[in-house]
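Study both lines:
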Amino acid sequence: MRAKIIAALKANPNASAVARQLGGVSRHTVGEIARKAGIRLAAATATRRVVTPEQRAKIIAALKTNPNARAVARQVEGVSSNTIGKIARQVGIRLAAATGERRVVTPEQRAKIIAALKANPNARAVARQLGGISAVTVWKIARQVGIDLAAAEAARRVVTPERRAKIIAALKANPNARSVARQVGGVSGFTVGKIAKKTGIDLAAAKAARRALPPERRAKIIAALKANPNARAVARQVEGVSYATVKLIAKQTGIELTAGQAAKGNRQSRLSEEKRTQIIAALKANPNASAVAKQVGGVSSQTIRKIAKKTGIDLAAAKAARFALAPEKRAKIIAALEANPNAAAVTRQVGGGVCRATVRE
């Protein structure tokens, strides 16, 4: 393979091309072999980057027609805008001047912008209306001719007396700022909130009232808690109420959530002596928590680990023993590495639950 790579590099000193041509070898490896064999890839790279006289003439002609480096790079394939810029500098074509010319607003366009601004002093709206011009340019022209866009913006934001009266009426019917903003339209929830504050409509009290539980639902929760003092179970039973709300009501009414605490209690204490004995016996035969949990059933591997810890069964040592390589497999790996010192290839060759990291070790 090494001889093949060197022969291919002599024919074409391009690491990427050789890597693609031969396959199964990376560009980095090809580069390393080239360096050791004294083949200069840098020279090849430089050759590839040279612009031919025909291409250069084509670029200069295109730049004279349109002194825009990016546009010419798109037009003349296989060359970057950076290279176009360098050629433009060498032949004295000013790209900066071309950029400036593209941004010039014609007198007709300027007159149109001023007329549109007088009718509607809104830079963004005028830019959208005329097209082909940015809101920043419209704003600059407005400033030059003395059209006050800030005053116009403030005027647009003023709520008319009719709309204000409509908002107040809607707030009295439903003291919810967001809801009123959606209902009235063209006004934000923040503005509605400010109007409510000025007119003395208490949105906070209304919000609290909306969140308050009706006496019927509260009574239902208390009755359910007395029957079953388990906050989660009651929250599931009584619809539209959270576990936190049920817990708070239990605290307020002095109901102790004993059923819930018992359900959350130490699960190990609920294991029967027979099952515990069965787990210990299984751990002695096979000190593997996950395997024992699957074998016994109805118990988690975490519980198995706790029992193993209490009974002094060392799961860590057993795990290390399981992962230890057999002498036969170790010898096989060493022999394979001597024949082919490639960790990834040896891992695939040996197989049988051995990883590349183990082969490297």
Summary: The CA atoms of residues 217 and 238 lie 8 Å apart.
